[in-house]
Request: fold
Amino acid sequence: MYNNARGRFLGLLYVAPALLFVLLFTAYPFGQMIWVSFNSWSLITPPKFVGTANYTKAFADKQFWTSLQFTLKYTVLITPILMIGGYALALLVAANTPLRRFARAVIFIPVVIGLGASSLLWYWLFSTDYGLINKLLFDLGLLHKPVFWLGVNADISNWAIIVSVIWKVIGFGMLLFVAAIQGIPSEVTEAALVDGASPWQRMTRITLPLTLRTVLLVTLVSVIGSLLAFDQFYIMTAGQPQNLTATSVFYVYLNSFPYLKLGYGAALSLILAGIILLFTLLQLVLSRRSHA
Amino acid sequence: MSADLSIAMRAETRPRNLIATLWASRAKYLVGALLIVICVVMLLPLVASVLASLKSTTEAAAVPPTYYPHGLSVDSYVRLWDYQAGLQVYVGNSLATAAIAIALTLGLTVTAGYALARFPLPGKEALFVFLLLALIIPYQALLTPIFLMFAQLKLTNSVLGLAIIHTAIQLPFSLYVMRNSFEAVPKDLEEAAVVDGANSLQALVLIYLPSVVPAMVTVALFAFITSWNEFLGALVMMNRQDTFTLPLILSAARTQTSIGGTDWGMLQAGVTISVIPCIAVYLLLQKYYVAGLLSGAVK
Reply:
């Protein structure tokens, strides 16, 4: 079928729009970003070639390291909670009973809403005077004076945001883990039951090893998402106090747009893209292997 | 001897089975209760937001806050309706962006998926990898150069420009889903049609499209959710307030409102309105959503 020159021509014709789109809106900007990163440019003045100055500047920039460190801290704290929590939920709801199906659908609902919307929701819940969280903790007798959750202390803000994001995305891992657990051949589980394996043995010797690849892939997706965190910090703390909760993407945004240091912003973007690339390649290698 | 042994064994196993059965039934109820508690915890923030949006203006600004409204009122929605340029402008921008993004994503990936699955393209593997380029370059990093380009093309402050960014974000996932869907269609149907004199475009429209409708629903659904919710791209591209999308105007409203401090009631009315379409399409098209997630998220 179409296995001739005409077929090749037709195929190219059909793929051309997508090809053009990726060239124009992904490949070209990427090339331009590399070029811009070697220039000093503020939009008002013309670009000026500065070599690697933007990169050396980044390494000496305290805020760059603060942001990177904060982003890593956020990622390191939230990832294990999301993975262990998501897996525990998956074990709870993996069987196909009506209640479990319902629970799956409910736990997944926050995944489909916007991170912006959920951040605005939690911005209110964590509000010092107007929020329900202080009110609830107060009524339960756990608090005697209101806590300033957001924008006053970097660590407390980080934890408040982590709570909101766990609520928002834990269903994502859960759903993929459920699919992986349900994909385990029933003979394997039955054999283990016949051999008298305890639930704990079944989980550690069968379920976990047989779903390990999914766990690794979801971990990578989650790590990449956390390293690119922006919306929740922009909305809930605006980087406060003193830009201590400004994540890496936040710092790139600040430099590129409000400050209009385009060259510097591009250099920071490339450094960030390089870090992300490591994780993405790992993810691709892992998913490749599974198809083989 | 053997009979004695079996009786002895039965005597030993029976009480253990009884305990196990009792324990199992108790565990069943415990797990059920736990699941219900988890569901309540997951739903509470959304319910609290909806309830807060229905408080009267004074109650919404009360310190300490009330858990639920002591009288229902749509004041917050009325204020949101008239906020700045008016809610219909922002919802309109969001809907227009999403509609263009859906159309662009479908148009590009249906044709490209068809080409990749059915034609002998030169360097097909390399081509496919190139089309998935956006997978390895996070769009957050590309916004600076795209902004420069769009500034020259007069595509900043335009729903078309923003829709292009949302399409670029969705393209790899959508292409992957479409190509797989085209590959799953049996070839004989198409061959029969071509023998009958159909050209490749007719074969696409008449033979393939009906078979790839589920994939198209999945692609459109994810494009909608992404576009409707996307924040950073809109924040960078849309600088005039009348071009803001819903998430942008709500984010702006968290600090600057007409009644002095933050208008918490109006903010939660906005959250409720932006959340409803997402939950509605998810509940209606759950099957497609889950299918897309399983095929695309963990490739």
